[in-house]
Amino acid sequence: MKRYSAFAIAREAIGNHLGWQKAWASPAPKAAYDVIIVGAGGHGLATAYYLGKNHGITNVAILEKGWLGGGNTGRNTTIIRSNYLQDPSAAIYEKSRSLYETLSQDINYNVMFSPRGVMMLAQTHHEVRGYRRTAHANALQGVTTEFITPARVKELCPILNIDGPRYPVLGALWQARGGTGRHDAVAWGYARACSAMGMDIIQQCEVTGVRSEGGQVTGVETTKGAIACKKMGIVVAGHSGQVADMAGFRLPVEAVALQALVSEPIKPCMDVVVMANTVHGYMSQSDKGEMVIGGGTDGFNNYTQRGSFHHIEETLRALIETFPMLSRLKMLRQWGGIVDMTGDRSPIISKTPLGNCFINCGWGTGGFKAIPGSGWAMADLMARGEPGPLAEAFDLWRFKEGRFIDESVAAGVAH
Amino acid sequence: MLTLECPYCGIMADETELSPGYEAHLKRYGPGSTDAEFEAYMFARKNPKGVHFERWRHAYGCGKWFLAARCTATLEVFGTYPAQTSGPPPHIIAAIKARRPGWEAGQ
Ligand SMILES: Cc1cc2nc3c(=O)[nH]c(=O)nc-3n(C[C@H](O)[C@H](O)[C@H](O)COP(=O)(O)OP(=O)(O)OC[C@H]3O[C@@H](n4cnc5c(N)ncnc54)[C@H](O)[C@@H]3O)c2cc1C
Ligand SMILES: [Zn+2]
What we know:
- The complex is a heterodimer of chains A (415) and B (107).
- Chain A is built from eleven helices and 18 strands.
- By secondary structure, chain A is of the alpha/beta class.
- Chain A is globular, with a radius of gyration of 21 Å.
- Chain B is of the alpha+beta class and 107 residues long.
- Chain B contains two helices and six strands.
- Chain B has helices at 35-42, 90-99, and strands at 3-5, 12-14, 19-23, 51-57, 65-71, 77-82.
- In chain B, the strands form two sheets. Chain B has a four-stranded antiparallel sheet. Chain B has a two-stranded antiparallel ribbon with strand order 1-2.
- In chain B, a hairpin with a 7-residue loop joins strand 4 and strand 5 (65-71).
- The model of chain B has no long low-confidence stretch (mean pLDDT 94).
- The site of flavin-adenine dinucleotide (FAD) has 41 residues of chain A, from helix 2, strand 12 and strand 16.
- Residues 38-44, 63-66, 70-73, 75-79, 206-207, 235-239, 243, 258-260, 294, 337, 339, 363, 365-369, 415 of chain A line the site of flavin-adenine dinucleotide.
């Protein structure tokens, strides 16, 4: 693989850009691999990458039913933050955020990580108390956040109306080192790095069955034939319930649609990410100038990647008091993804009832920010067969034993 | 937008008039049950890609809970029925089979 660099751009400019290589190879599947990862979203690709980088395991296939990064990884609003309340969450999301800081250098692919700052508005007294508590918790966890005043909020984001009659801004939880990234680039960059290590990324290859013998997975059936493996990782987000069903176990997961939308592009007017959890909406501005807007999930099980229009309407209606300028903007595009919601709104990185089968799912509405950290922890689990410190609290058995990691109360809108 | 018929009022209700209640026909466990039974009741979900039975409440209408048979892969609605039953009634099963010949109840 030729490295990307300023020099490479100059070289290719002279050579009429005829020397660029394909970013990743598209081989036919082999008969067997040491490890099969099902799902080439960010989490599956990152798992494969760290299996190779941290554990030297490279006889790996990543099977994807559509195109890589075409699931939630390519559909999200790219907010990256780690200001969670519970210790296990803060640990893995902060690991992830810190990996994002050097990811472009690590994988030699510009993921456009932009630590522009994430602001979570407190618009009720309940939220003020909640975010003050989170700021204290973050201080103990070593995550740098602070609770800021309304005046400081206005200074950081002048287009905000802080004096709204229904939802005045009473302060905010500010994480200066949070921000956004380029979602496609994260998927493409990891894919390119995996391919360079000799791993096979096989697109248009849907897993349709799981073969097992004596409590161990022996391989998978796919639309491109049967493939054997020594270990399997299920990393399919919204389709987790379906693939778990093939493997013969049930998950505490429901698949629902989450929508987002962007406005027409406008001049730069906002250089931070703002989340308004009480009214259930959040916004940032993309490099193209579009306002990127999201809200809450739709309310029923859904695999169609589209949601109901009234949710879009609710999100915008809610945000207009806080961002009056939105009322004059045209909305350009709207789309949905199928998110995997768990019973405690925290993810699962776990062993399964099948000895050599592992699962990573349940990132729901907020797993883009977690891609590097989750891949790191999942690779560790798959390589050693036992969870390390980042993953151990996120096991599947916590639902039976009542060890919930309850972020639903802490996060409101969970991004 | 999803439109469901409330089996009590007999009117077609838009999704904005309804509250979702997720999986129907869950067996409810009480004191003395095992951890596994509680887990199954509270957290383990079928979450099928296809035919699904679920609870809905006619929140801005009569206020009653009812049940619906719906396809999560196409959003097609097969029918709705009152909640006072532990399984889908025969006419709902028939309506599903008419549209999904390979489908078996209990899946
Ligand atoms: C509208 C929206 C906004 C969001 N905003 C944010 C945000 O601002 N910040 C944030 O941190 N997170 C956000 N998220 C959540 C985030 O996108 C996800 O948590 C994350 O991308 C999940 O990554 P993944 O790799 O687990 O799943 P995916 O990217 O969905 O990848 C799973 C892959 O598995 C494949 N697959 C499924 N079944 C099979 C099969 N049987 N065989 C083979 N392949 C299969 C799918 O095709 C898919 O490509 C948002 C999500 C949505 C939908
Ligand atoms: Zn009614």
